[in-house]
Amino acid sequence: MATETRERIVEAADLLFYQHGFEATSFADIARTVGISRGNFYHHFKTKDDILDGVINRRLANTEQMLDRWEIAGSDPAERIRSFIHILIVNGEKIRKFGCPVGTLSSELAKLNHAAKSDAAALFTLFRSWLRRQFERLGFGDKSDELAMHILGRSQGVATLANAFDDDRFLRHEVELMCDWLDVQIADLTNSNHPTGE
Amino acid sequence: MATETRERIVEAADLLFYQHGFEATSFADIARTVGISRGNFYHHFKTKDDILDGVINRRLANTEQMLDRWEIAGSDPAERIRSFIHILIVNGEKIRKFGCPVGTLSSELAKLNHAAKSDAAALFTLFRSWLRRQFERLGFGDKSDELAMHILGRSQGVATLANAFDDDRFLRHEVELMCDWLDVQIADLTNSNHPTGE
DNA sequence: GACGAACTAGGACGATTGTCCTATTTTCAG
DNA sequence: CTGAAAATAGGACAATCGTCCTAGTTCGTC
């Protein structure tokens, strides 16, 4: 079936782009991985940028799906944020090898001056909006976006260094710190809501 | 003179690697920028990896020099750490366009499985050790390395997101937060040294 | 069962890649 | 001034890049 082959191509490209980068992954590499000819390849994707579009859309869909699942599973917004923070540990091995899929793609496309850079940034926006929504539900109001960006930035930095030093201990320690930070934020919020004590 | 041309090559390669990445920068690109022939080029650098080595060594030397200058200029270790944090603002424009030179190179080489990955990580180590030394002087003892890594990670994350969103406000806000964090760390330290109060 | 569309294979294309070679020019010590 | 070494230019090299084309094959629909 057509869609099946197309799906296999995007899936293979997704993995290769993550592991070796967009620029370093060739048309031939993907075709070889999928086990199809380059000619067949071109029937599904006219240009390399088309594949990139496909990969980004796939990641957008997958991410959205994951965030939706969290939205249902965890009843507590704080617990959902902790779910986000813990991706660093869940995907720890991959991150130590290849970095964060979102951050590294965004950085590469920025350097390549690639038109799809904003599409890659949309992946970040997905997380950002989701996190902001959780903070809003916790009652942080206008500060929610700032807090979302803060968490997002922290996890990006942790991914970068865990990758550079291949350091699992650091990664886990920073995850703890981020959870501690979250607890403090929530505690400060409840204090400021009841300034005179109970 | 020989060394002069060599220096110009490394300088141009340094900039191009930063702005467009190592993989995306070709031999011809560098030669064109410097204004020399590819043949002349090969006389100075046998392979592309040799240029990468040259660029990394140049960055190592420049970084070391910058850190040494800070070590002399600022008498207070805390002030020196603030100098480090403020690179984000000083180089803000470049960072928003191309990300952090250290982090993006490290990420790219990790994906390329390049032998020089550890050399690029040495750039991180330079900052890490310097920061650890400052924390040690402030009296943080065994915690110094953890704090150094924390600061390093935070700035990496800020650079990644400032680049992805081209957001100067976020960058400046996070720099403030990092400085606040530093103040809290120092305050906590002095409190724990005088647990019963003055 | 026939026929058009979708799918697949494999090769050709010009351009560019990193690398290497051979001339020519420049530099500088004896 | 001379001759060896260093520096430079420019092209050749095979390999690979993204792209495109032309054949076959398979499929679904009348």
How many discrete domains of chain A?
A: 2
Number of helical stretches of at least 4 residues of chain A: 10
Cα end-to-end separation of chain A: 66 Å
Biggest β-sheet description of chain A = none
CATH architecture of the largest domain in chain A: Orthogonal Bundle
Helicity of chain A, as a percent range: over 70%
Most extensive interface: pair and counts? A-B, 39 and 39 residues
Give the percentage of residues in beta strands of chain A.
under 5%
Structural class computed from helices and strand pairing of chain A: mainly alpha
Supply the key terms.
DNA-binding, Tetracycline Repressor, domain 2, 2 domains, 10 helices, 0% strand, Arc Repressor Mutant, subunit A, homodimer, transcription regulation (chains A, B), elongated, DNA binding (chains A, B), Tet_transcr_reg_TetR-rel_C_sf (chains A, B), YxaF_TetR_C (chains A, B), mainly alpha, 198 residues
Question: What can you see in these coordinates?
Answer:
Two copies of one chain form a homodimer. Chain A is mainly α. Chain A has two domains: 1-45, Homeodomain-like (Arc Repressor Mutant, subunit A); 54-191, Orthogonal Bundle (Tetracycline Repressor, domain 2). Chain A contains ten helices and no strands. Chain A has helices spanning 2-20, 27-34, 38-44, 48-73, 77-90, 92-98, 101-111, 117-138, 144-165, 168-193. In chain A, helix 1 crosses helix 4 and helix 6 (92-98) crosses helix 9. Chain A is elongated and about 70 Å long. The termini of chain A are far apart. Chain A binds chain B through residues 19-21, 23-24, 97-99, 103-104, 106-108, 110-113, 120-121, 124, 146, 149-150, 152-158, 160-161, 163-165, 170, 173-174, 177, and chain B through 19-21, 23-24, 97-99, 103-104, 106-108, 110-113, 120-121, 124, 146, 149-150, 152-158, 160-161, 163-165, 170, 173-174, 177. The structure holds a DNA duplex (30 and 30 nucleotides). Chains A, B: Residues 3-63 form the HTH tetR-type domain. Chains A, B: This is Transcriptional regulator.
